[in-house]
Amino acid sequence: MSNKTNAKRAAAQRHFVEDIARLLAPWGLPQTAARLYGHLLLAAEPLSLDRIAADLDISKSTASVSARLLEMSRLAQRHAQRGSRRVLFEASDDLEGMVTEQTRLMQALARLLKAGARDAAPGPVRDRLELMAEFNLATIEGMETALRRWLAKTRR
Q1: What are the average pLDDT values for consecutive 10-residue runs of the chain, which has 156 residues?
Q2: Where do the DSSP E strands lie in the chain?
Q3: Where are the beta strands (DSSP E) in 37-155?
Q4: Whose CA is closest to 46, among 93, 4, 1?
Q5: Cα distance between residue 41 and residue 24, in whole Å
Q6: Helix (H) or strand (E) holding 32
Q7: pTM to 2 decimals?
Q8: Sequence-separated (6 or more) residues with CB below 8 Å from residue 144
């Protein structure tokens, strides 16, 4: 491949990483973790923290914290290297795990909203909390239905 083609591809990949970060940051994912997720999505193989830090021009400790955050969110998964303490990370393709984690959080929120509604005086506050709890439960149901359909389609 020519240098010009490589430069265009590198620029497009940087743009993709930054676009992913701009999209995910408002959802509460820290900017660096969101950039790391975009970078992992483009990686053909699992990456070491050293490689991540160099590629994203961040410290190794920042890369580690961001990778662990992605791992907790089920957006990335860790791989140990046999015979080494070195850890590698890659973007997760565990859609079921991601949906399960999101469902768990939304169920907890629905429980809190219902408890708040029980404690609120009758009126607009109680109505709002009940409506939000119902919406979370409906969203969970929709996500679970979509996941079942997706898994049935892809596991043929």
Answers
A1: 85 95 90 96 95 96 96 91 86 86 91 96 96 96 92 84
A2: 47-48, 76-80, 87-91
A3: 47-48, 76-80, 87-91
A4: 93
A5: 14
A6: helix 31-42
A7: 0.78
A8: 99, 103
